[in-house]
Design goal:
single chain; 420 residues; two-stranded antiparallel ribbon; 13 helices; 6 strands; 52% helix; 5% strand; globular
Length: 420
């Protein structure tokens, strides 16, 4: 037992944990909820993957970073790269493929550290990184215009979808536009004040209250895509059957992007004691963070410019701040998950008699609130289980009854639901 405890102590940061680190982790945890969910959306998968990755990256990646204030979490660049690698993969396999891609990318990062490839990051010019980040920002902005304005846009890439929305103004949902624009204004305005640490939280809460208070059902909600989990996911190995040459290539691309961006974070956030960061050690930390994220059904993570800056602004002093950020996130999700379990249930539009609790647990023939026509739905594991109201195989079984089979419920006066 003493040997096990000794190994655990060896993994923990050697710096003394301070009260400032514990407090500094809270703003990062709050901001990571919308950031993590947005990363999942950017990658084209369930937002749950982003939340799981945010927890795993901060805790396990933060254990051994050489850049002490670096926060290892989801990033827009890695999310977009992962989403591009999954473009040709069927919806029902995307979650499993993303988890496998994350594991492979983490392995590549660890191998890069073993081969001591960190010294080559200094050859990446500042102009290249600037152009890369500008491209990522533009892709994000164009890609989110349809969701911002509540339009189901057509197009093969982000810019095409944005043009489709702007050329069809009659399809814009004004309620969605009001909610989205108000969130942007709040983020910008509060960012100029002393409340900037909580800007993302306020921008998330105020429009949410507005939607609920006014009953704007036309505004898309997170519950239309996935249910927020009530705790930490159970670790599990990725599905090896989804591994392919294309997935390996995508994982290599993600690894390179994460490592280069992490090197930029190390330059922008020097250690408080003046010690020099080790690129290879940061490679290892980010690799470990990705391996842990994959085992917890997460997505790629890396050194985040924005979250690291928030960590420094909040008063972080050691690696413990990033670790506490991940722990606070677990606490937050546990609390919000319990609160959502008592939300008002919704009726099934298919039969009118089933009720679906806010916790996402199924009653009757619905699984995980699968009733949004024309959209892919995800269960609590992040798997795509249906498009619209359809269900299929074990992926669509109700979590409240592991033995439940699709089609076991009969709407009043109708045929088996599963036979539609």
């Amino acid at each position: 037992m003493s040997a096990v405890l000794g190994r655990i102590r060896a993994l923990l940061p050697r710096e003394r944990m301070t009260r400032a680190d514990v407090i500094a982790g809270l703003p990062g945890a709050i901001g990571s909820v919308p950031d993590g969910m947005a990363s999942g959306v950017l990658a084209g998968v369930s937002p749950l993957h982003g939340l799981y990755a945010s927890m795993a990256g901060r805790v396990f990646g933060g254990l051994s970073t050489s850049t002490r204030l670096m926060v290892v979490t989801t990033t827009s660049a890695s999310a977009l790269a992962a989403g591009s690698a999954l473009t040709d993969i069927p919806d029902e396999d995307r979650s499993a493929a993303l988890v496998m891609l994350t594991l492979v990318a983490g392995g590549v990062m660890i191998v890069a550290a073993v081969l001591r490839l960190g010294r080559y990051t200094r050859f990446v010019s500042h102009s290249v990184m600037t152009a890369f980040l500008l491209g990522v920002a533009a892709n994000i902005a164009f890609g989110q215009i349809p969701a911002l304005l509540g339009v189901d846009a057509e197009g093969g890439f982000a810019l095409a979808k944005a043009v489709n929305v702007l050329t069809h103004p009659g399809e814009i949902d004004w309620r969605s536009a009001v909610v989205g624009v108000s969130a942007l204004i709040l983020m910008w305005a509060l960012g100029q004040t002393r409340l900037r640490l909580y800007a993302s939280l306020v921008a998330l809460l105020v429009p949410t209250v507005l939607v609920v208070a006014l009953g704007w059902d036309s505004v898309s909600r997170v519950s239309d895509i996935a249910t927020i989990p009530t705790g930490f996911p159970i670790p599990g190995l990725p599905d090896l059957t989804v591994l392919s040459p294309a997935l390996l290539s995508g994982a290599l691309t993600v690894a390179v992007i994460v490592l280069v961006q992490g090197a930029g974070v190390a330059e922008s956030a020097p250690n408080p004691d003046g010690s020099r960061s080790s690129a290879n050690r940061d490679f290892t930390a980010q690799g470990v963070g990705n391996v842990a994220a994959s085992l917890l059904r997460g997505m790629p993570v890396g050194g985040s410019v924005g979250q690291t800056a928030l960590n420094r602004t909040a008063g972080a002093r050691t690696r413990w701040a990033a670790i506490w950020s991940g722990l606070w996130l677990v606490v937050l999700l546990r609390g919000t998950g319990r609160a959502s379990a008592h939300a008002n249930p919704r009726s099934c539009p298919d039969c009118g008699s089933c009720r679906v609790p806010g916790s996402g647990q199924a009653v009757g023939h619905l699984e995980q609130r699968i009733y949004l026509p024309g959209r892919v739905r995800y269960n609590a594991d992040g798997d795509a289980v249906a498009a619209g109201h359809s269900r299929g195989g074990n992926r669509g079984r109700a979590l409240t009854d592991p033995a439940a089979e699709p089609g076991s419920h009969r709407p009043q006066g109708g045929s088996p639901a599963g036979g539609r």
